[in-house]
């Protein structure tokens, strides 16, 4: 790993796992995403990782919906825009790539493999559902895997990377995903500096145990040497202790309501900015500086905005 002098804070604003009934703070509308995105950047985030939702809160891949908040965020702040190509298990590859094709962000996320991606456990008994789609949507994750085949990964690399000059945040949910990434690097479809986002604690992927983070870094070091930047996060209650570990290991951090709705045990976060502010405080207590968006661009090999 190329240990950074400063740490990049990414904020994943809304994702496609949590539903509106779980927290009123979850941003849903374009206005919500603009307001919370700008507040997260003001709190210290250099990268905004973006999903989109319909007005009912249901995840959508619609490029027209993305455009309503991506363009204003790009115009009103200097953060790096990172558009998902993951979306949800219920979207086709063409749907998942559509927003990045239209908007050509600086960065797009790319999941490095097919997997069981299960969040059905969030459909707990006793929830007063606001919308009729929520419970069945959550339960369906136990029936339908997330697919990103080698052919689909190559399509994204060629169309978005070579075709539009988009760089990637490679999301690795297991050790095998690192080897898949190395395969595409060896074929010349991935160039450094590589941004690896280690994802821990998703049911179906690598567990949120700290030795797993150390192991992922060791294997990434073996495969990519110093030609990569590492970031990590864990879903749910492990969020803050995992970003602390990632920062101490020389890597970057990610927070946001996509990954965890809480700011502390039993207390829902007011918004994304509250989590960003806590991450910045943790980094400060560790004696680590937070990278500005332009410093993050330099570390990740991005063009100046």
From TrEMBL:
UniProt keyword terms in alphabetical order: Metal-binding, Transferase, Zinc
Organism: Amycolatopsis silviterrae
InterPro entries noted in UniProt: Aldolase_TIM (IPR013785), BKACE (IPR008567)
Name the UniProt record assigns to this protein: 3-keto-5-aminohexanoate cleavage protein
Pfam assignment, any one: BKACE
Reported cofactor(s): Zn(2+)
Keyword hit for Calcium: no
